[in-house]
Amino acid sequence: MLKTNSKKYKENFKNYILSVIDSEDLPSETMTDKEKIKFVMDRFTNEHDFENNRRKIPNNQKRFGDWLQCGALNIPMYDDEVLNLSKKLLETDTLKNQDRIINNYYSFMALQIIRLNEKLNK
Fold first, then answer.
1. What is the residue extent of each domain of the chain?
2. Residue 22, CB half-sphere, CA atoms under 13 Å: how many?
3. Alpha-carbon gap, residue 50 to 117, rounded angstroms
4. Could you tell me the CA-to-CA distances from 108 to 28, 68, 72, 102, 112 in Å, in that order?
5. What is the DSSP string of 27-72?
6. pTM
7. Dihedral angle, C-alpha 74, 15, 82, 44, nearest 10 °
8. Rounded Cα distance, 98 and 82, in Å
9. What is the pLDDT along the chain (122 residues), one digit of tens a residue?
């Protein structure tokens, strides 16, 4: 089982999230990884990061997670799908703390996408 801060896990996550973004309505199919992540971040800003939401949910990661929870990206939404994705990304057959994984899923996904955006925009 990989740790979520390992290089291999980060690579697995990057490949997964970029494949999900590929399935979205991108303006161009020849976009770079950086452009794809920027496209997602721009969508978040345009669709969910407005003044009222910033007051209601001041934390950017939680606000981003709230946006993801509304079905903004084609990521798993049901508990069994979330656990299967976690197993795939962590390269394991068993998971401990399944309730914790499910409860923190959208916030965790938001954090990983935000970090990927920061890494690609260095």
1. 7-20+32-120
2. 9
3. 20
4. 28, 11, 15, 10, 6
5. S-TT--HHHHHHHHHHHHHHHH-SHHHHHHS--HHHHHHHHHHTT-
6. 0.91
7. -40
8. 10
9. 999 899 999 999 999 999 888 655 677 677 889 999 999 999 999 999 999 999 999 999 999 999 999 999 999 999 999 999 999 999 999 999 999 999 999 999 999 999 999 999 88
Which position has the token pair 């899923």? Answer: 105
What CA–CA distance (Å, rounded) separates 5 from 34? 21
**Rounded Cα–Cα distance for residues 22 and 74 (Å):** 10
The length of the chain is 122
> DSSP letter at 23?
T
Residue that has been written with the tokens 């990661």 in this structure: 61
Contact call for residues 94 and 85 (beta carbons, < 8 A): no
